[in-house]
Amino acid sequence: MIEWTGSNAIWIAMALPLLAVFWVFLFGNVPNLREAGSIVVSIVLFCVNVSLSKLVFRGGRPEFSFGEMLPGFELNFVVEPLGMVFALVASGLWVLTTIYAIGYMRGHHESNQTRFFACFAAAIFAAMAAAFAGNLFTLFIAYEIMTVSTYPLVTHHGDAKAKAGGRMYLGILLSTSIAFFMFAIVWTWQLAGTTDFREGGILSQAFEENRISSVLLAVLLGLFAYGIGKAALMPIHRWLPAAMVAPTPVSALLHAVAVVKVGVFSVLKVAVYIFGIDLLADTGASEWLCYVAGATILLGSLVAMTKDNLKARLAYSTVSQLAYITLGAALATPASVVGGGMHIAMHAVGKITLFFCAGAIYVGAHKTDISDMRGLGRAMPFTFGAFLLAAISIIGLPPGGGSWSKWFLAVGTVDRGMYFLTATLMVSSLLNIAYLVPIPVRAFLTPAGQEPMKINEAPLMCVVPLCITAVGSVLLFFFANEIYSVLEPIVGVQPDPS
Amino acid sequence: MIDIYSQLPILLIAIPLFAAPVCVLLGGRWLTYLLSVVVCGTTFAISIGLMQQVIKYGPIHYEIGNWKPPYGIEYVVDGLSGFVMMFVSALAAIVLLYGKPSIDAEIPRSKHYLFYASYLLCMTGLLGMCITGDLFNVFVFLEISSLSSYALISLGRTRRAPLAALQYLILGTIGATFFLIGIGLLYQMTGTLNMSDIANRLDTETGPRTLLVAFGFMTVGLFVKMAVFPLHSWLPNAYTYAPSVVTAFVAATATKVSVYAFIRLVFGIFKPEFAFEQMPLGTLLLTLSLVGIFIASTAAIFQDDVKRLLAYSSIAQIGYMLLGIGMATTDSLTAGIVHMFNHALIKGGLFMVVGCFVLRLGSSRLSDWRGAAKTMPLTSLAWAIGGLGLIGVPMTAGFVSKWLLLTSAFESNHQLVAGMMLVSSLLAVVYVWRVVETLYFSEQPSAAAKEASEAPVWMLVPMYAVIFAVLVFGVWTQFSAGLAAEAAQSLLPLDLVPTAPTVSPGGTP
Questions:
Q1: How far apart are CA B492 and CA B325, in angstroms?
Q2: CA neighbor of B59 nearest in space, from B76, B41, B39, B73
Q3: Exposed, middle or buried: residue A441 (CB in 10 Å: 0-12, 13-18, 19+)?
């Protein structure tokens, strides 16, 4: 029997999605069995993560190592709070997305469903491996597996548009990671002699010994920030809108949760555990990144306003919201880093709801453009109701979970005396209102067009998950304190042992 | 009673060498094929046995006919030569196992027995270059492998094949002659041909000018055989017009064995201090390989013929191996040697994929491959996996060598080289993915692709064995990187270039 310890839980959590991959291939011809396997595995995975989280949030740091893969580079996994929160969010939403995907893919008669579900599970495997990665080397490997395993999902439809989108997706993500991320990792290794994630960072010694100047630190941070292309910092954000050619469940889980969150999660981890927020704050190496992130926040929102296609608008909204988290890392204050970590969870739940709604509207009403959605609210009350709740959370208004994370980020800008960025955050929230709220409002309040209404809600398999996540985004508002306290240790605050 | 184990070094050469004329005598198609497969398999088994002995008891010295070196010819199997021989014989066996349908389709039946004879001779030559400890013997085996590869290339289907073979023959002969001139000069200076004996007698610090000339001639001669930019012009045509099986075998092995000979020359015969401090070999190698990597990778992007595309990619990949040699640290040499092995697997595997497509689609032109993923899903997937290896995505063999090369570049303060190397590998993304997109996302499948069926199982199984090995050696690095590290350690125990004055390069404790 395998003893139930933290380190066993780590490899089990990574093995489960792989098991799902094999299961899906094995029963590729029996759709019901195939999907049942996916659901069961996703639920078990979530339970494993929950039990692991109890240990981690009490201050435990379970470890698991596959040993040295290359001289000096270990394939090593250590669970810390930030990764645990990310793993919980990703695996929890995987359960709902699987259910949703079944409704969507069947309701839509999509082809190649076996490949779809297999790649999906493989991407979750990569997300788990990234969440638990104990050093940069391991993180890099997980990061690249995620890029490659999601490529078939992005190009699912196999037409010219999918090909162009896939090319942009793979081209940007692969080339930035190879050219910048890998370079930055080896540079870090040369400076610090290790790539382990350690509390307080590993680069401060090299800086004190004058082996790297503060300018070069800023360059190294830049290599990380742009090498981790999944964080979608402008101007390398183009892959994200391009990837929206994928079926909606893919956009929902991967491009609102797993893929993009691996990006910003990695940026946060690099800032906290490689540089250390004190080093970043003292040297000012991350100051430029604050402004780039601020610009991305505004520009992303502005571009989102111009998009009539709902998924494209959500994509640019994601670009903007991801930059909040990058900003949290770049500000390098305790409040901003914890706020950034919270925003990973808040934005994930909110944005996945919005994507679920977009997919449900497509399945139920076959509409993709916002201008065509007038009056739809009466035919699809649950979908648009959920949309409104999630939108409130994304904007950062109470009672949406997003209000807390944005609050802490704003506190961070004030702590650093960057009032210009505080104003940016406020303006961006107004822009969020402008591009999100009119969609459900028009759907409910304006009368429908001339065509007779024969539109109903999407299948239950689609509607139930999106209602759950919408309620979740509101519930997070009330449980924000819990998330805050579990994330506090990453900036050096010891957890309450009780 | 002769102990068979002690005779393995000579059997490794003798068995394929004598099997070749037997093939000619036997004639026919099946019998010669079976004989060749058995011989290649035996050779592989022998090389494994030799490697095991080396790991257990250290280098093997075998005196042919009991003539004591330096008078007689000595065969030496050490960590490096054993490692190279192992993957050369493995790929020779597996390519042959895979190739029967392709050989039947691409080579006139009347010439099959000649093909098998040349194939065995070529393998003999390559293994001989690795195993022999005698410098003149290296030349002899180099010529055996070269002459037989000219013959193999000229067997191609089109009339361009003989022309490509002739082009290779002219350049290859010039290269071999240069090498021979170098040997002559060394012999004149030392009076011996045994490599370790030459190394002992050669006074590289205060020796005569002749030394420089000899080194120059031998280096340039091997540069031609390795297809180092700008002496690569024979390679694209040779790889493109040769039969697919020949391309798979030659591309996977021949250039790597020349790289092996070059490593021996630089580190074994001449001393590394001579090559890198008295001669500007480091600068020369780094410059040539970086320029070559960029030019050849860019050229690969614009090829329509996939064989030619891979040929240019091979020229670029040789550059990565030479980067490892050129940085002249133990770690970088390790990376270079690992890349020899990994690239042999990756390129061998990819050319095997090409062979499957050529068999079913009748052409290696990319325009004829449009939409082939629908009818040949397994072969297409193999391309995608092998291609990821070529790019160097984690969990593939290509990543291992790239990572080792990168870390060693940082250690020896070659940050610029590291950066250029990474940027250049992006070009590989482009040329690999062009093919993937053509296979998977073509709106209008080509006529051939519509009617094609999946490649025969007999080809798929060995092909996937190689592709699978690309994945295995991307995770299990103890074997490849471990053996390479030991070999590099024995060749270059101390780094020449002082490592970066930073922390100990051990990484995590």
A1: 11
A2: B76
A3: middle
Burial of B472 (0-12, 13-18, 19+ CB in 10 A): middle
Chain B contacts to A (CB-CB under 8 A): 331, 388, 391-395, 400, 403-404, 406-407, 410-411, 415, 418-419, 422-423, 425-426, 429, 433, 437, 440-441, 443, 475, 477, 481, 485, 500, 502-509
Q: Does A151 touch chain B (CB under 8 A)?
A: no
State the burial class of residue B48 (Cβ atoms within 10 Å of its Cβ: 0-12, 13-18, 19+): middle
Say if strands B74-77 and B60-63 run parallel, antiparallel, or are unpaired: antiparallel
What pLDDT score was predicted for residue B508?
39
Residue B318 near residue B252 (C-beta atoms within 8 A): no
Q: How far apart are CA A268 and CA A176, in angstroms?
A: 18
- Give the tens place of pLDDT for each residue, B229-246: 889 999 999 999 999 999
Across A207-231, average pLDDT:
89
Q: What is the pLDDT of residue A2?
A: 65
CB distance A193–B422 less than 8 Å?
no
With CA atoms as reference, the chain B residue closest to A135 would be B508
Three-point CA angle B481, B482, B488, nearest 5°: 85
pTM of the model: 0.90
Residues of chain B positioned with their CB less than 8 A from the CB of A160: 441, 443
β-sheet bridge partners, residue A73: A70
The C-alpha atoms of residue B383 and residue B372 are separated, in whole angstroms, by 12
Residue A279 contacts residue A295 (beta carbons within 8 Å): no
B509 pLDDT band, cuts 50/70/90, is: very low
Record: contact A190-B441, CB cut-off 8 A: no
Summarize the confidence of residues A367-389 as an average pLDDT: 84
d(CA B356, CA B461): 12
d(CA A296, CA A292): 6
Q: Which of B25-34, B318-327, B500-509 has the lowest mean pLDDT?
A: B500-509
Contact between chains at B393 and A174 (C-beta distance less than 8 A):
yes
Contact between A138 and A187 under an 8 Å Cβ cutoff? The reply is no
Contacts of B407 in chain A (CB under 8 A): 70, 72, 186, 189-190
Residue A30 one-letter amino acid: V
> How does pLDDT run across B412-447, given as a tens digit for each residue?
888 889 999 998 889 999 999 999 988 988 878 888
Q: DSSP string spanning B219-267?
A: HHHHHHHHT-TTS-THHHHHHHHS-HHHHHHHHHHHHHHHHHHHHIIII
Q: What is the mean pLDDT of residues A235-254?
A: 85
Preceding omega of B498 cis (within 30 degrees of 0)? no
Does position A115 have pLDDT exceeding 90, yes or no?
A: no
CA-closest candidate to residue A126, choices A35, A21, A234: A21
Q: Which of B344, B448, B450 is nearest to B398 (CA)?
A: B344
Number of neighbouring beta carbons within 10 Å of residue A171: 18
How many angstroms separate the CA atoms of B49 and B60, rounded?
12
Contacts with B441 from chain A: Cβ below 8 Å: 155, 158-160, 162-163, 166
Q: In a mutagenesis test of the B interface, which of A25, A70, A77 is the best target, namely the one with the most B β-carbons within 10 Å?
A: A70
How far is B187 from B207, CA to CA, in rounded Å? 14
For the segment A251-269, the average pLDDT, to the nearest whole number, is 87
**Percent of chain A's residues with pLDDT above 70:** 97
Tokens 């957890």 map to which residue?
A495
Cα B445 to the center of its chain, rounded Å? 35
Among A385, A418, A396, smallest CA distance to A476 is for A396
B277-286 mean pLDDT: 89
